[in-house]
Design a protein that fits this description.
By secondary structure, the chain is of the alpha/beta class. It has a single domain, classed as Alpha-Beta Complex (Inosine-uridine Nucleoside N-ribohydrolase, Chain A), CATH 3.90.245.10. It is built from 13 helices and 12 strands. The strands form 3 sheets. The chain has an 8-stranded mixed beta sheet with strand order 3-2-1-4-5-6-12-9, sandwiched between helices. It binds beta-D-ribofuranose and calcium ion. Calcium ion binds next to loops.
Length: 309
């Protein structure tokens, strides 16, 4: 039986690739997709998500819109990375047919978890405002979720929005802190430590052929490849969000260690930093399975195989 999942997204370039992987793999039972502000406004994230489902021929999957801003802070969009619309302009000409469901993402998550206690894996590839609000509204949720897979944070390297913080955690650090402290049975952190090794290069994109999806991937990643090269010296698309989906499909893609991880929320320089207590100096029980190694080639093979169909 396929793993039941909900994806929580702020659909930018890599969220969209994660969605395509999740849908096209046929290995996940996608109960719904919830949207949140992040890379773009929540309205734009919802529209992008609906269009991606149209592209993938998966309009039956419910999309439910969520929080329009972080719990305490202001929005912090990433147009510089994902373009004005969040998808590098690739679907500007597509007319949006699919519409989101009525209701709020927070209630959708709660309802689904109550309906399938102990069965749902939450794949979080955006600031985690929706999940934090869901826990505040319905604290029992924590015991009823099977696993939370978080694309976020970095524990051994540098940040991608400040010198120390990764974007998803930085945008809503209070939400991330709340989630890390909540007591979930399993939180897996798919951070920049591993996602920066999962690089989609032009030759991989070329290997997708000339289908509608391949053309979309090429168009949506074009500017991203350029910007990544300017900053990192490699012409590639870092597969942050798709790797979190990959880990849901095949947990053996990564090696994890169980550590106490917390989030800095009161620092001028280090706000949003994920602090990992490698030597248990704080004597606090481990709460997060941190991904430290990745089978990057195997993951890229999975991604290209699935998208080739
Ligand atoms: C994360 O930040 C966003 O810009 C990406 O979509 C990804 O979820 C990477 O730090
Ligand atoms: Ca994202």
């Amino acid at each position: 039986m396929n793993k039941k999942v909900i994806l929580d997204v702020d659909t930018g370039v890599d969220d969209a690739l994660g969605l395509l992987l999740a849908i096209r793999s046929g290995e996940l039972d996608i109960l719904g997709i919830t949207t949140v502000n992040g890379n773009v406004s929540v309205e734009q994230a919802t529209s992008n998500t609906c269009k991606i489902l149209q592209l993938a021929g998966a309009e039956h999957i419910p999309v439910v819109q969520g929080a329009g801003k972080p719990i305490l802070r202001s929005t912090y969009f990433e147009h510089r990375v994902h373009g004005k619309d969040g998808l590098g302009g690739a679907l500007n000409d597509m007319t949006q047919r699919k519409q989101p469901e009525d209701g709020h993402a927070v209630d959708f998550i709660i309802d689904q978890v109550r309906k399938h206690p102990g069965e749902i894996t939450l794949i979080m590839t955006a600031p985690m405002t929706n999940l934090a609000l869901a826990i505040m509204k319905y604290p029992e949720l924590v015991q009823k979720v099977k696993e939370v897979i978080v694309m976020g944070g970095v524990v051994q390297g540098f940040g991608n929005v400040t010198p120390t913080a990764e974007y998803n955690i930085y945008v809503d650090p209070e939400a991330a802190k709340h989630i890390f402290w909540a007591g979930f049975a399993s939180i897996k952190l798919v951070g920049l430590d591993v996602t920066r090794k999962a690089l989609l290069r032009e030759e991989h994109i070329d290997s997708l052929g000339d289908t509608e999806i391949a053309r979309y991937v090429r168009a949506s990643t074009a500017d991203y490849l350029q910007r990544y090269q300017e900053r990192n010296g490699v012409r590639a698309c870092a597969m942050h969000d798709p790797l979190a989906v990959g880990v849901a499909i095949n947990p053996d893609l990564v090696k994890t260690r169980h550590y106490y991880v917390d989030v800095e929320t009161r620092s001028e320089l280090c706000d949003g930093q994920t602090v990992c207590d490698f030597q248990n100096r704080l004597s606090v029980k481990p709460n997060v399975h941190v991904c430290l190694e990745v089978e990057a080639d195997e993951f890229i093979n999975l991604f290209t195989r699935v998208l080739r169909g």
